[in-house]
């Protein structure tokens, strides 16, 4: 079949206004900040308002805004305060922005395998990677699908290890009724262009721990003790502050967050209902008691049932106007040069030169879930502007594409 005879969908995109929720409220907030002449959050009110409202929304005692999701992770790792060569166990299927802060804070990322159904770490995959040098666990709730946190928390409590939650893709997702980000010691969120709500770049960190809250606040602010009787720069830290302009947009965006997530969930359920039982594909698997917030919608493709697997299906979907992503990432993080060649600070290899050999053992046979999960996953774009017609069109296109792939065999 030629592309001229195919029905091509025109889907809203989170990379422009068609798939975003920006409106007059953001413009008014920005105008008010500009009229005030105060663009720094150390003197303004919008970022403080965002922090107070976000903490209340997710049920945390403290929330702090910062310049990016990467900065949020960096602040969290700095708050944990590892020694050189300490180990932080995490996932190999994540953005590099969730890993480089570990290295910058002189610790070694140790990669656990994942459940191929979700591409999330589990207690069973984390436990073999823990050692006497483990300083923290970082879990990523990938695509908006929460990890199985009850088991992970139990493991962490047993070992006395704090858990950092990377919630960049999972605003308002829940585990047994509790918000992600509040299930560990620190939760980290991103306000990057394509997230549930956006300020272009931006981040948030939350915690219930007073000592960690103090270190989070200080690290974002160059470790300067704003408000202290005799402030100083108490330790090595960066300026990761959010501007009042970003805060203004975020305050307006926050009003829409619950509706954004509800819209994504409703349309995702509709698609799952239409694709359930289609031979060769599986709709998202969600652990009992968890609620997915659908940053993206992921199919699992059985290459034994569909020749060519996710790659072949992606080609067919592209001809129908759906720009999906086979594998999500090209390769696991540990196969990137920063890890394979230990490219860090000059030629020092620091902090890798402090690593145990077992901590930097990246043999593929140690990660069966990672490689099989990446082989199977096909990531569909998703946003809150999808209508029922969009979803019905996607469902029809997927079913047609499945038939076309079979016809090519």
What is the N-to-C order of secondary-structure elements (H for helix, E for strand)?
A: HHEHEHEHEHEEEEEHHHEEEHEHHEH
Number of helical segments? 13
Radius of gyration: 22 Å
Head-to-tail CA distance between termini = 14 Å
Describe, in plain words, how this protein is organized in 3D.
With about 400 residues, the protein is an alpha/beta fold. It has a domain at about 25-255: Aspartate Aminotransferase, domain 2 (3-Layer(aba) Sandwich), CATH 3.40.640.10. It has 13 helices and 14 strands. It has a 7-stranded mixed sheet. Helix 2 packs parallel to helix 8 and helix 9 packs parallel to helix 13 (about 390-409). The longest helix has 21 residues, at about 390-409. The mean pLDDT is about 95.
């Amino acid at each position: 079949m030629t592309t001229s005879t195919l029905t091509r969908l025109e889907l809203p995109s989170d990379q422009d206004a068609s798939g975003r929720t920006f409106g007059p409220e953001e413009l008014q907030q920005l105008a008010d900040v500009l009229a005030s002449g105060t663009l720094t959050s150390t003197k303004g009110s919008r970022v403080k308002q965002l922090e107070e409202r976000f903490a209340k929304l997710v049920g945390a005692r403290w929330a702090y805004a910062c310049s990016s999701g990467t900065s949020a992770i960096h602040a969290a790792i700095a708050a944990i305060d590892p020694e050189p060569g300490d180990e932080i166990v995490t996932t190999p299927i994540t953005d590099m922005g969730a890993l480089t802060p570990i290295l910058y804070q002189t610790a070694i990322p140790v990669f656990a395998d994942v459940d191929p159904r979700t591409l999330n770490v589990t207690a069973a995959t984390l436990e073999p990677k823990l050692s006497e040098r483990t300083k923290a666990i970082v879990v990523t709730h990938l695509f908006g699908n929460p990890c199985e946190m009850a088991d992970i928390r139990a493991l962490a409590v047993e070992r006395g290890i704090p858990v950092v939650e990377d919630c960049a893709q999972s605003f308002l997702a829940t585990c047994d009724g509790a918000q992600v980000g509040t299930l560990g010691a620190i939760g980290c969120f991103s306000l990057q262009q394509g997230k549930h709500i956006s300020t272009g770049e931006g981040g948030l960190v939350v915690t219930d721990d007073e000592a960690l809250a103090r270190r989070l606040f200080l690290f974002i602010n160059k470790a300067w003790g704003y408000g202290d009787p005799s402030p100083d720069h108490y330790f090595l830290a960066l300026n990761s502050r959010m501007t009042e302009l970003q805060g203004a947009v975020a305050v307006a965006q926050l009003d829409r967050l619950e509706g954004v997530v509800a819209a994504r969930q409703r349309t995702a359920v509709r698609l799952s209902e239409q694709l359930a039982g289609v031979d060769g594909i599986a709709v998202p698997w969600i652990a009992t008691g968890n609620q997915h917030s659908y940053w993206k919608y992921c199919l699992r493709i059985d290459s034994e049932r569909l020749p060519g697997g996710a790659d072949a299906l992606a080609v067919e979907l592209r001809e129908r106007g759906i720009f999906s992503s086979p594998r999500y990432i090209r390769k696991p993080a540990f196969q990137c040069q920063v890890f394979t060649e230990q490219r860090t600070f000059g030629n020092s290899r620091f902090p890798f030169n402090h690593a145990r050999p077992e901590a930097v053992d990246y043999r593929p046979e140690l990660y069966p879930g990672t490689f099989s999960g990446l082989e199977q996953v096909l990531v569909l774009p998703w946003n809150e502007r999808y209508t029922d017609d969009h979803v019905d069109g996607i469902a029809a296109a997927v079913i047609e594409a499945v038939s076309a792939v079979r016809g090519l065999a």
